[in-house]
Amino acid sequence: MSAVCHNLSQFYYGPRVSMKISRHLKENVWTWKSGMAAQCFFPRMVGARFFNGMTTDPVVREEGDTPRVLITGSLGQLGTGLAKILRTKYGRDNIIMSDIIKAPKQIVESGPYIYADILDFKNLQEIIVTHHIDWLIHFSALLSAIGEHNVPLAMRVNIEGLHNVMELAKQYRLRIFVPSTIGAFGPDSPRNPTPDLCVQRPRTIYGVSKVHGELLGEYYQHKFGVDFRCLRFPGVISADTHPGGGTTDYAVQIFHDVIKQGKFQCYLRPNTRLPMMYIDDCLRSLIEVMEVPEEKLKLRTYNVAAISFTPEELVQALKKLIPEFHVSYHPDSRQDIADSWPEVFDDSNARNDWGWKPEYDIDRLCEVMVDKLQAKYPKK
Ligand SMILES: NC(=O)c1ccc[n+]([C@@H]2O[C@H](COP(=O)([O-])OP(=O)(O)OC[C@H]3O[C@@H](n4cnc5c(N)ncnc54)[C@H](O)[C@@H]3O)[C@@H](O)[C@H]2O)c1
């Protein structure tokens, strides 16, 4: 088959390009299967996707160069804050924010912001070439609770979208970061503590897509040498941006509701323990793992942990700062998801291999959230 393709491509593209196709065929069986058969028989039709990634030798960045970074899904809870930090570190114009929604004025004025649908491979290809991207930070996703309500869309965005970015990382030799989650574990995993390597049988489409991402990324790393890096984040707590429909969102909502209305209704039982992390710790862990030299990474997917608490413990910590407020508990379908997730994350590999260390405990987390939100919602 390889010889047939070689002959046909020689006919269509001439001997020099055809040589490259043949060489590439030997190295890239996956791409060959999906693209080459069609390429041979319908070369003009499918040329772009397959052909572009191999005709030019990609420019490989030197360690220490300032990277040019594309963030997908950058208008969500994590993306805006990350872009801000990376722009301070690497320069405003080196960080390209992207999403499918219209950005608020302050984002548009803060640096490059473009439309990028994770399902549109060709558009992503164009962005990577035009903006000389070196690192891709892939945030586009439907989170756990939202994903359960629209499984077909979650499969498209979380799985098909991931296929697109992995293929781009391979073709253009990008360093790629894909976040995973505590939701990548399930009821059969050890829950306290949950190590990096153990049984992963999640029960949500979100979790299934994240396990798929971890495995596919690691496969692309050992098969094609893609510089894939992945952290499993706990529930992320932030004051500046709103959470995107996850099971741990209560730990953000409580601060808004208590400060605005003096009361909070929790959708989890009071004793539901889950790993959590303040956003500054989360974004710092991401930047640290992106900057660490490859040889230090013994794994490609690491747990990172900071705090583990229950709603009741969070209420007690918050009462040290705001003594009077009312809480009620009305568990809904998110309780079942939480019951299948880790209670405490074991992140000893991240600590040992690249020096991960969180800075925010539950009291410091409450102080910073209350400070920020009291300034946002001044007392009437
Ligand atoms: N926030 C957390 O607590 C948490 C915890 C663990 C892992 N993560 C992971 O981190 C990443 C970012 O999380 P987040 O909280 O910022 O998510 P979010 O839901 O707040 O934002 C996701 C973004 O993806 C965008 N998006 C949706 N469909 C898209 C498409 N077709 N093309 C391009 N963009 C699209 C949305 O517009 C949104 O802005 C996700 O992969 C998530 O799974 C988040």
UniProtKB/TrEMBL annotation:
Domain NAD-dependent epimerase/dehydratase: 69-305
Signal peptide (from-to): none
SUPFAM superfamilies to which the protein is assigned, alphabetical: NAD(P)-binding Rossmann-fold domains
Source organism, top-level taxon: Eukaryota
Family annotation (InterPro entries): Epimerase_deHydtase, NAD(P)-bd_dom_sf, NAD(P)_epim/dehydratase
Family under the similarity heading: Belongs to the NAD(P)-dependent epimerase/dehydratase family.
Protein name: L-threonine 3-dehydrogenase, mitochondrial-like
Source species of the chain: Limulus polyphemus (Atlantic horseshoe crab)
